[in-house]
Amino acid sequence: MLDPSLDFQIEQLGSCHFTSPMRGVQFADENERLLYHSSPEDLRPYIAAGLEPPSMERAGPRQQIFFDRHQLSCGIVSCGGLCPGINNVIRAVVMSLYHHYGVRRILGFRYGFKGLVKRHDVPPVILSPDAVNHISELGGTILASSRGPQDAVEMVDYLQELGVGILFTIGGDGTLKGAATIAAEVKRRGLPLSVIAIPKTIDNDICFVNKTFGFETAVAAAQNAINAAHSEATGAFNGIGLVKLMGRDSGFIAAQATLVNGQVNFCLTPEEPFNPHELMQKLEERLTRRGHAVIVVAEGAGQELMTVTGKRDSSGNLQLGDIGEWLRDTIKSHFTEIKTEITLKYIDPSYIIRSQPANAHDSAFCLLLGHNAVHAGMSGRTNMVLGSWNNQFTHIPIALATRQRKRIDPKGWFWSSVLASTGQQGDIAEL
Ligand code: ATP
Ligand code: MG
Fold first, then answer.
1. Which residues are listed for ATP binding in this entry (predicted)?
2. pLDDT tens digits for range 171-218
3. DSSP class per residue in 221-267
4. Which of 40, 162, 269, 429 is the most exposed place for a label (fewest CB within 10 A)?
């Protein structure tokens, strides 16, 4: 289907008059693009209409750059919740600015967007290779973070006062929207200030981005919890192990962790509403047949089953009902009602997972994201997100990336594979 709204055009501050000081690297061709669609069926309508199919700009170092590296100051800010790999990204951005481009003034804004507002009195720290050399061994973010909105006018006032030329924002959906308001204010003032976002969402729910950093580490770290749930379940009469994982709107972590583990019998995600009566019935059948069960539930699943308070956090995110506790209580009541003894163990490892240092896979991914973010900023691109698509790094306009959330397609091959691994839809009919 043709989608005329798919505009991957990236904003540019101006012409590139400086030659990159990088040596011995493969520079990206300015015209190099990656197709958004990869199947012939999706491409056909564009070809039939004589239109160019939608494509994304490829990331990478450019031969000609916009900023005079000798005069340039840069800033980095991290916002929202923790996610494995934030420190790796900070380190990679600092190292690339310093070693690839010779930028010497790099400011680390503290406590998220709050640190970008002067009257909050949290002055930025100076980041150097020495200051960041070992930070990727640590979980969390050395710059600390915050939630809650800040005024774009005040933030740009302070950036202007400090002479920042490129601002790197590391954060999720809210941070991207905040970064877009900064970019809009910068544009209104006609400043040569680039805003480059590096998407941080452990839930992997950003559109036009195949995978975000921290996801692989989260899935790997979730294995401890699922294995513990399985041991607890098999170690008791009618044992049930229940694990709640991250995933407010998209159940990618729960689903991928289920595929990786292979011990999960029921995987519940926000994308696929479930009927609690059916679930109890299947759980009864499973206990009768096998004597134990493992359930993995994403935090945003089954919200329609609970009384939602409508309360929001300081960033405006709706507070979710606790599906883990709800399921625990519902399962216990159900089996008490039918006078069947069970032993249920509930595990919520979310904060342990979020604060992990990045694993090997994510560390390399974060390094490349950080380097490519610097290349994008140095080339004068702005109001954009560093994405990854079909194993390549790309540039995506922030407006497109925040258009909607990426979710599991309940009719797609991925979810079908998860169901095939849990067997939660029932075994094959007896022959
Ligand atoms: P997480 O995935 O952990 O929620 P996030 O980046 O979405 O990460 P938030 O706390 O939701 O984290 O938002 C980060 C920052 O962006 C906060 O300071 C928040 O107030 C700000 N923000 C959120 N939405 C907007 C918006 N629409 N416009 C401007 N700023 C926003
Ligand atoms: Mg958010």
1. 81, 147-148, 172-175
2. 998 999 999 999 999 999 999 999 999 999 888 888 888 889 999 999
3. HHHHHHHHHHHHHHTSTTEEEEEEE--SS--HHHHHHHHHH---SEE
4. 429
Task: Find the helix or strand (DSSP H, E) in which 372 lies.
Answer: helix 360-378
| 265 CB near ligand 1 (under 6 Å) | no
Span from the CA of 125 to the centroid of ligand 1 (angstroms): 22
Going by pLDDT thresholds of 50, 70 and 90, the confidence category of residue 429 is low
The structural domains of the chain, with segments of one domain joined by +, span: 215-355+411-430
Q: In what order do the strands lie in the sheet with 392-397?
A: 33-35, 55-58, 392-397, 384-389, 194-199, 164-171, 73-78, 105-108, 125-126
Q: Can 203 be counted among the known catalytic residues?
A: yes
Average pLDDT over residues 233-250: 96
Predicted complex ipTM: 0.94
* Helical axes 252-261 vs 215-234, angle rounded to 10°: 60
The pick from 153, 175, 314 for probing ligand 1's pocket by mutation, whose C-beta has the most ligand atoms within 8 angstroms, reads 175
Determine the average pLDDT of the residues in 10-22: 97
Residue 62 near residue 20 (C-beta atoms within 8 A): yes
- Give kind and range of the element (H or E) at residue 89: helix 86-95
Q: Is 172 annotated as a binding residue?
A: yes
Neighbours of ion ligand 2 (CB under 5 A): 172-174
Q: Is 382 near ligand 1, meaning CB less than 6 Å away?
A: no
With 0.90 as the threshold, say if the pTM is over it.
Answer: yes
Confirm whether residue 205 is marked as ligand binding: no
| Percentage, residues of the chain above pLDDT 90 | 86
d(CA 79, ligand 1 centre) in Å: 7
Q: Spelled out in words, what is the top-level CATH class assigned to the domain 215-355+411-430?
A: alpha beta
* Lowest-pLDDT range of 118-127, 241-250, 300-309, 371-380: 300-309
Which atom of ligand 1 lies at the shortest distance from residue 317's CA? Answer: 11
